[in-house]
Write a structure and sequence with these properties.
The protein is α+β, with helices and mostly antiparallel strands. The protein contains four helices and twelve strands. The chain is elongated, with a radius of gyration of 23 Å.
Length: about 220
């Protein structure tokens, strides 16, 4: 088979309409805070969008991604993320906004040049391992500061007088802005009944509050 025929075959395979995806992951330093989860099926992995979180505190385990060919569907990509989560011992994936990259594929033969732009969709997420505690806080997503977006009624956070709009700046004396894994280490990986000291900024003043972690209800 000559070079032109090989190139044409490569384009045909890419454009054939058969969707597939390939996963990859990079472990995070917080992965060792909670033992790996053992799941029997990849379908048992829970998927959440970037602005949602599971009720249980979860520890960030790995950055995972699934990269598809031009015909990979959302279903293909989500299945790939689930498989990567199982591979790193995680039971939850927080999905980042979908994206895609592209490339031009071309051949030349018989005096005719062919060119096709192929879009390669991908999904990226954070694989997490759920712990055993509930704190009842939802943070504003994708912010450098840890701003409280929502506090659940009856939650440990509400009992500690943590309020919506508070900025949590330290946890057990560690500045959250300096350590992206401090909340996982000092809160999400802890056991029920553990007391955590948080410092918040509210209306320009700092306050120290005692957050007593609980089992989920």
């Amino acid at each position: 088979m000559n070079t032109h025929s090989l190139a044409s075959l490569a384009v045909l395979l890419i454009l054939s309409g058969c969707g597939f995806a390939r996963g990859e992951h990079k472990m995070l330093e917080s992965a060792d805070l909670i033992a790996p989860k053992t799941l029997k099926r990849a379908s048992d992995v829970q998927l959440f969008q970037a602005d949602a979180r599971p009720k249980l505190g979860c520890v960030k385990t790995a950055i995972i991604a699934d990269n598809g060919n031009g015909y990979a569907t959302r279903e293909h990509l989500e299945a790939g993320l689930r498989k990567e989560a199982v591979a790193v011992g995680a039971d939850v994936v927080i999905i980042r906004p979908a994206g895609q990259t592209s490339m031009n594929v071309g051949t030349y033969g018989g005096g005719i040049a062919l060119s096709e732009q192929i879009n390669f969709p991908n999904l990226v997420g954070v694989a997490c391992r759920t712990g055993t505690i509930w704190h009842g806080i939802r943070f504003v997503p994708d912010q450098k500061a840890w701003i409280v977006r929502y506090v659940f009624d009856g939650s440990p956070a509400q009992k500690a007088d943590i309020r919506e709009g508070d900025e949590i700046v330290t946890v057990n004396g560690t500045f959250l802005g300096d350590d992206p894994f401090a909340w996982d280490r000092e809160v999400n990986a802890k056991s029920p009944s553990t007391t955590v000291e948080v410092q918040v900024i509210r209306s320009g003043s700092k306050q120290r509050l005692q957050l007593v972690l609980e089992s989920p209800k």
